[in-house]
Design a protein that fits this description.
binds zinc ion, 44% helix, single chain, alpha/beta, globular, TIM Barrel
């Protein structure tokens, strides 16, 4: 018997409508539940570490700079020195070679030297990495190990210091692509005391942080008010904020504003603000020592 034209189509349409309605209901339920969860549990976001920071501080702050731009030794180092603040500089050997004496003076003043690889490999989605043949997607673990070891050798020749600190270029921690991707975090853990990331979204929880992947938030192109907000948020949790910048000056485009840095240093070194300011490696070592005493929690 021939079915009435359209009946089958109507049934199919009904089924499709039911499926769509069920999907919409599920999505709404998920969104609602996630919102309720946030409102009901503010302690998920504020949970003071009670970590025994030195000098009665309520948090730690590290300032760091990448790539070894000339403006770092020209402007940032004298300003840091005027506040007696030590920072960490993750440098490229070829940039250091252009201003060796200035970099030697910076290290003699107590600033920390870090490795940032020899040729700065980053994702091949940047045109310059493909041009320079340093796309991480085309690296393997042996290649990235060579990058780090070469930089350590060159920096030791130039400055007489072999870095134990490392910052991942572009904050990227992998080599290869797809199913053949490998993390090079284990290599950094083997070769260095610490590894610092970049453009992270959080400060570091002292009882939890992995020193091979220290989170770092950007201070390039940021106003002081934003930095003050990050500091206050970090202080609520008694955590460790690591800030990272590149060039330093008045019109850097890709860098940290000198006036902002001056304001930040004045704020960070005011005892009333209870901030311990020290280089990344010093804070990482302090955490390691006190975490083993207290026992991780
Ligand atoms: Zn870099």
């Amino acid at each position: 018997m021939k079915s009435t034209p359209g009946t089958r189509e109507l049934l199919l349409l009904l089924l499709v409508l039911l499926a769509v309605a069920a999907g919409a209901q599920t999505r709404t339920a998920v969104q609602d539940s996630s919102l309720r969860w946030r409102e009901a549990q503010p302690e998920r976001y504020v949970n003071p570490s009670r970590f025994p920071w030195p000098q009665d501080a309520k948090m730690a702050l590290s300032l760091s700079f990448d790539d070894g731009w000339d403006s770092q030794v020209d402007y940032a180092v004298p300003l840091l020195d005027s506040f007696a603040v030590k920072a960490t500089f993750y440098v490229l050997p070829e940039r250091v070679a252009e201003k060796v004496e200035a970099w030697r003076r910076a290290l003699a003043a107590g600033h920390e030297l870090g490795n940032h690889t020899a040729r700065h490999p980053c994702t091949g989605n940047f045109a310059w990495t493909r041009y320079d043949g340093v796309a991480l997607e085309d690296y393997d673990l042996a290649g990235i190990r060579r990058e780090m070891e070469e930089a350590n050798t060159q920096l030791e020749q130039l400055l007489g210091v072999r870095p134990t600190a490392f910052a991942y270029p572009c904050g990227e921690t992998y080599v290869g692509r797809g199913a053949q991707t490998s993390s090079y975090v284990p290599l950094v853990a083997e070769l260095f005391h610490h590894g610092r990331r970049w453009a992270s979204e959080t400060a570091n929880a002292p009882y939890y942080v992995d020193r091979a992947q220290i989170m770092a938030m950007r201070m390039d192109n940021e106003p002081f008010t934003r930095m003050e907000g990050l500091i206050q948020r970090t202080k609520r949790n008694e955590d460790w904020l690591v800030l990272a910048g590149h060039g330093v000056g008045d019109n850097p485009g890709w860098g940290t504003d000198l006036q902002m840095l001056r304001q930040l240093l004045a704020y960070a070194t005011d005892p009333a603000n209870q901030i311990w300011v020290a280089p990344v490696g010093e804070v990482a070592a302090y955490i390691e020592a006190h975490r083993s005493q207290a026992g991780a929690r």
